[in-house]
Task: inverse folding
């Protein structure tokens, strides 16, 4: 794989195809393509972001994430991780022109499509899930000096007994702002995630506390919020 990714068009690898012909892909089926990928089905469409099942002449099950090109922050972080992947990151295409692209209004990037996200049916595998997530965090923290900040069951994907951590929208650097100096709304949210008053608002500690919540959610006998909602 060509590892010299850049988000300036002048220095992109020559194999990267910038597809500028795609508009209104939902309304015009014949244009439901992103680069070499043909959209088969839309898996998720919320908050102006889409996850689509796609196909091309490359074997395997694949998906792409599509979002507005007003910000390239997630794509930048994604490509940085691809250059030196943390353990248990999603698998990505090995060919540069299949990895990501830009249209006049959107950016997209591709990844392997997994069978499902983790749910309570995987509770008997909580140890494997915990190890996979800790290995991901160890590499993200130590090699990339980044924090994940988005542990949710739907962000841990599974095929068979293989677990990976997906969705890098909230990956960020540790910030010097202290929790006690943040706004009241932010402060209490992050306190619940393990933040300390005299420690940075975004920190590695919060990733570990959030992972703990996930493992409790998988294994605890008591119902959680979603269970209460379903009962009501």
Result:
């Amino acid at each position: 794989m060509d590892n010299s990714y850049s988000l300036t068009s002048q220095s992109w690898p020559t194999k990267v195809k910038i597809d500028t012909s795609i508009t209104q892909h939902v309304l015009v089926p014949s244009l439901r393509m992103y680069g070499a990928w043909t959209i088969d089905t839309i898996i998720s469409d919320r908050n102006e972001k889409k996850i689509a099942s796609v196909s091309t002449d490359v074997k395997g099950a694949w998906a792409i994430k599509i979002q507005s090109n007003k910000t390239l922050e997630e794509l930048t972080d994604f490509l940085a991780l691809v250059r030196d992947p943390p353990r248990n990151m999603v698998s990505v295409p090995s060919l540069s022109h299949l990895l990501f692209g830009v249209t006049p209004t959107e950016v997209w990037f591709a990844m392997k499509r997994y069978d499902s996200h983790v749910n309570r049916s995987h509770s008997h595998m909580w140890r494997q899930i915990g190890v996979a997530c800790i290995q991901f965090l160890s590499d993200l923290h130590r090699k990339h000096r980044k924090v994940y900040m988005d542990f949710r069951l739907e962000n841990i994907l599974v095929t068979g007994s293989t677990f990976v951590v997906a969705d890098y929208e909230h990956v960020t650097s540790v910030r010097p702002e202290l929790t006690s100096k943040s706004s009241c709304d932010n402060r209490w949210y992050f306190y619940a995630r393990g933040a300390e008053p005299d420690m940075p608002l975004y920190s590695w500690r919060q990733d570990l506390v959030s992972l703990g919540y996930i493992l409790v959610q998988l294994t605890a006998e008591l119902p959680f919020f979603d269970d209460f909602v379903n009962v009501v």
About this structure: Residues 13 and 228 are 51 Å apart (CA to CA). The radius of gyration is 19 Å.
